[in-house]
Amino acid sequence: MMTLHRRVRRAALAAVLVCGMGVAGCQSGPGHTGADYDGAPIYLTQRPALTLNAASLEGASSDAAVLAARIYPGAMIAGPGGQMLPNTDLVGAERLPGEDTRIRYTLSEGATYSDGHPMSCDDYLLAATAAMMPEAFGSVVPVASHIAEIQCAPDGRTTEVSFEPSYGQRWQQLFGPGTVLPFHTIVARAGMDPAEAREALVDGDAERLAPLIDVWRHGFDPTRPDPELQVSSGPYRLAGVSAQGDLHLAVNEYYPGDRPHIPDVYLRPGRGDVASPNEATPVLADLVDKDPSAVSREDSAPPLRINQEVSERTDSLVLASAGVMEDQEARRALASCVDSAAVAKASSDVAGMTVPWVSTRVTAPSDPTYGRVGAQVDAEAQGHPEDTEALQGRTVRVAYLAPHTRYRAMVEEMARSCAAQGITIEDVSSTKTTMADLVGAHGGEEGFVDAYLLPVDGASSYDLEPVEPGHKSSVLRTEQELWRSIPTIPLAAEPRNIVADHRVGNVVVYTGPAGIGWNMDRWRSVDHS
């Protein structure tokens, strides 16, 4: 039995498509599928596909969980209404008796990767270690800072994770979609002996783990299919990339659960305004940057169902741990100069729907306690004119993963309100800018971004002692502590425009990290002829 003890506490959250925008450089061949989709649905998402690794800084910045939800499913599946559903097809999770929070994860008998290799606790040891060593791995899994110990027998089917005392239910956020990757292929690609890799993981030896870390972080770009490395544990596998730059998901024949109803799905990342290539192809979309009219369709195509939803996530600025944002006074100054109500209006105008400005971090606007808790922290969020003195005459560099019309408008609004206080906001975004570019993301002073704009999930993105759901006093204490430390600045609820073709059934709207693809394997083809 190998036992990993916690060594690292981390603070709160601190490539465009290869063929995506033009087809001239894309050819059918190994790793690529042809353009004939044979009626398979296309799922449009708006963020570029950088990686399937949702635990990495790049993955968290690009909503990798949307792509990876049914390729590398989590131990628990988050569904509508915030419910956490056990993924017993793959792994069972049970809380063991006792005062401490101790969870036993037991892999199902048939839990097997798409290359036929059985899953093991080594996969979970790697996932947990990567999460607990954020500077070495470039990871962002705040819940892991509360892990006290991991027990894993080499090639075993059971993993036990002990958390800090009285940790509550937040443990369900560990091992989420896109965070448990194949140990055996990563180790093989890194040229390491499995026993050596296990020992280095348990020891937390970043130097010995360097080859493994490189593969873990950079080997899961879905636009560069690597069938020997990117093997799947979910109901779908990455089968290739089409000539149009769409990611082709096909059935994983080794998955122990029910076979997907729709055998082929094409994901079109980073191009939410490009509809299906012909009227025979159903289209679905999860739009975070445009209003639903942006999805163009041929006049003869069947109508679309459109849901405009206020997301469970909050568009927020994640602040750098070093540089101009290192001091609490500077964080307070930035929070005070930003007019969140005006920023929310700018977001609403682009999205074609109204979203509220938000003053809380772990409490979403949909939460029953939001009104009462928000009213008590609104004054903290709005700040006072004198609070801006720490940043007057200075420049704050803000970034997001471009292109993003809505975020550009939000940053422009921030720049206007802060300029009136003598603070310059500079937009330094590009198509490759991620949270990895935050000053201090890897220790030291490297990096060129002071604040990164992205949607933040309050359930999993903070490492404070979790609140007890529905307990107003507990929720309020947590929110007040977060306004004292200011790891992020909440701005506005994220707008989501969900578009679904009538020819695809059982599409259940979910506005959390995995998006509407959370139950993709349960989608059904519907014949309206």
From TrEMBL:
UniProt KW keywords: Signal
GO biological process terms on file: peptide transport
Pfam families xrefs: SBP_bac_5
Record-annotated Solute-binding protein family domain positions: 101-347
Gene Ontology molecular functions: peptide transmembrane transporter activity
Domain of life per record: Bacteria
Annotated signal peptide: 1-26
InterPro entries assigned: SBP_5, SBP_5_dom
UniProt xrefs under PANTHER family: MONOACYL PHOSPHATIDYLINOSITOL TETRAMANNOSIDE-BINDING PROTEIN LPQW-RELATED, PERIPLASMIC BINDING COMPONENT OF ABC TRANSPORTER
UniProt name for this protein: ABC transporter substrate-binding protein
Organism in which the protein naturally occurs: Corynebacterium uropygiale
